Amino acid sequence: KETNAAKDEL
Amino acid sequence: MNIFRLFGDLSHLAAIAILLLKIWKTRSCAGVSGKTQLLFAVCFITRYIDLFLHFVSLYNTEKVMKLIYISASVFTCYLIFFKFKATYDGNHDSMRAEFLIVPAAGLACLINTKFDAIEILWTFSIYLEAVAILPQLFLISKTGEAETITSHYLFAQGSYRALYILNWIYRYHYESHVDTIAIVAGVVQTILYCDFFYLYITKVVKGQKIVLPA
Questions:
Q1: B180 contact A CB<8A
Q2: What pLDDT sits at residue B168?
Q3: Do β-strands B210-211 and B145-146 pair in parallel, antiparallel, or remain unpaired?
Q4: Which of A8, B47, B100, B176 gets the most CB atoms within 10 Å of its CB?
Q5: Chain B contact for A6, CB < 8 A?
Q6: How does pLDDT run across B60-73, given as a tens digit for each residue?
Q7: Average of pLDDT values for B35-45?
Q8: Which residues cross the membrane (chain B) (predicted)?
Q9: For chain B, which residues make up each domain, given as ranges?
Q10: Average of pLDDT values for B75-98?
């Protein structure tokens, strides 16, 4: 599942 | 947050700190590619643009880390291009940065998950980071050697994204989280360090200096 929206990585 | 991402971020912080210390202590940026540092600064600014848009209070470590990355990379560029400009090896730092920036920007407009400004800036930052180390590796190949401290910097810098790959495997397996763009770019980025990793592990670890066959 592409979860790009939540940019939770640095 | 998992152990791989934690150590990845710590390795990244260590790389930034090692480089700053090297330049500050030796009061010289010999052997350091200013272009690579500029590209990294661009990566951080375009990736963390949300910090400038809606500035939210520094309520979590992530915001603080982003500010540390941006300020440290800008300060490193300041040391290279202003304070210790006389020691900047411009002749050997001759890879055309435009050849990295333009394709990254073009690709970000073609391959992205959403065609909106913030997403494209983020994608550009991911693609640019994958190739940002090239001027530094190019400089070392031109000078034919790397100071030991610079080798440690490169090892930490390369390890950070290698650890992120493990983080992505972990997240795929346990959280079914997949970020294809970041993963592909991260793998390319890590592959670029392979020959350096080989030299580092076979030489620097034994106390020898990295000298490329001139």
A1: yes
A2: 97
A3: antiparallel
A4: B47
A5: no
A6: 888 899 999 999 99
A7: 98
A8: 36-55, 67-84, 96-115, 121-140, 182-201
A9: 3-209
A10: 98
Give the end-to-end CA distance of chain B in Å, rounded to a whole number. Answer: 44
Q: Are B9 and A10 inside 8 Å of each other by CB? A: yes
Closest partner CB to A2 (pick from B69, B113, B122): B113
Of B200, B118, B199, the closest CA to residue B156 belongs to: B200
The residue assigned the tokens 């493990």 is B166
User: Does pLDDT of A2 surpass 80?
Assistant: no
Helix axes B3-26, B61-78, angle to 10 degrees: 30
Using a CB-CB distance cutoff of 8 angstroms, which residues of chain A are in contact with residue B68? none
Residue positions counted in chain A: 10
The reply to whether residue A9 touches residue B177, judged by beta carbons under 8 angstroms, is: no
Residues in Cβ contact with B145 at an 8 Å cutoff, skipping those fewer than 6 apart: B31, B209, B210, B211, B212
Alpha carbon of A5: minimum distance to chain B alpha carbons (Å): 8
Taking alpha carbons only, the member of B143, B125, B140 closest to residue B50 is B125
Instruction: Report residue B55 as tokens.
Output: 């500035």
Q: Is the ipTM of this complex over 0.85?
A: no
Q: What is the pLDDT of residues B169-180, one digit of tens each?
A: 999 999 998 999
> Residue B23: is it exposed, middle or buried by C-beta count within 10 angstroms (0-12/13-18/19+)?
buried
